[in-house]
Amino acid sequence: MTPITEVEGRRLALSNLEKVLYPAAGFAKGEVLHYYATTADVLLPHLRDRPVSFLRYPDGPDGQVFFTKNVPPGTPEWVTTAEVPRVEGPARMVLVQDLPSLMWAANLVTEFHTPQWLIDAPGRADRLVFDLDPGSPATVVECCEVALWLRERLAADGIEAYAKTSGSKGLHLAAAIRPAPSEKATEYAKELAVEAEKAMPRLVVHRMTKSLRPGKVFVDWSQNAARKTTATPYTLRARRDPTVSAPVTWEEVQDCRSPSALTFLAPDLAPRLQDYGDLLAPLLDTARAGALPDI
Asked: What mean pLDDT is reported for the chain?
């Protein structure tokens, strides 16, 4: 029988709690749900008011992995949904606004991906992101070098950047910006990616062309487009181990000498949160948002 749990007055059916989703670590679905329950206080503010794209992996990363953008069948009526504009026509998507909604979504077994804009202003970016993706044999160590350059370049324009692991191979940079058209944010991010390539031609590439990427860091500026999404801070990833897209300090970025130094698993997050709190909390403070320069 599927156990029924009550979360803040909402009844949830949580299924297959003993099912191992991460074979390399023996990490089961019940542990996934526990992870999200214990990180909800820091995760929910980064999800709130942003339509969620779900990257689902109900049988683990070795099973079928697929994106779900529309409201999934069977979604409880108390889960907030909203109409979202798309090129192909409006669609209805989920907003994860509270703990019951988070636990319902986590029970689907999913990564959380969100756009750089809020539901009340679609296509007006309030965040700027760079996805630093290393091409083998480059690793997150090289991503850190690029991240430090980008941090200084953004600071020169009055924009404060913060870092998190991708939960995969690379590193994400994020910054709060005063709301601006996504097209302007994308143009600005591309310009900085081009500048980074000119400053570090042996290390950086700004184009996605795979033949250009071995041994370099691809600075993906395109995720600032209104239609694109990025892994939300603190989401688990569909990898062999239960890796997390975890915020990191700039000291950790500066000191990184091996990929293992910036690999964080679900059990690592509780002590990190105790030590650091939410390192990305400044992204939620509109008073700290920087203005995109005219380019």
From this structure: 96
Give CA–CA dist 188/182, Å, rounded. 10
Q: Please state, in angstroms and rounded to a whole number, the distance separating the CA atoms of residues 56 and 285.
A: 30
β-strands 91-95, 171-181 pairing: unpaired
If you count them, how many residues does the chain have?
295
Chain position carrying tokens 């000498």: 257
Two structure tokens written together for 287: 């008073």
Tokens matching residue 39: 């990180």
The mean per-residue pLDDT over the stretch 221-226 comes to 97
| % the chain with pLDDT above 90 | 93
Tell the residue number behind the tokens 């992870």, with chain if given.
35
Residue with tokens 């990180």: 39
pLDDT in tens, 134-144: 999 999 999 99
CA-CA-CA-CA torsion sign (128, 193, 226, 46): negative
* CA angle (21 as vertex; 278, 32 as ends), nearest 5: 30
Residue 273 CA, chain-centre distance (Å), reads 17
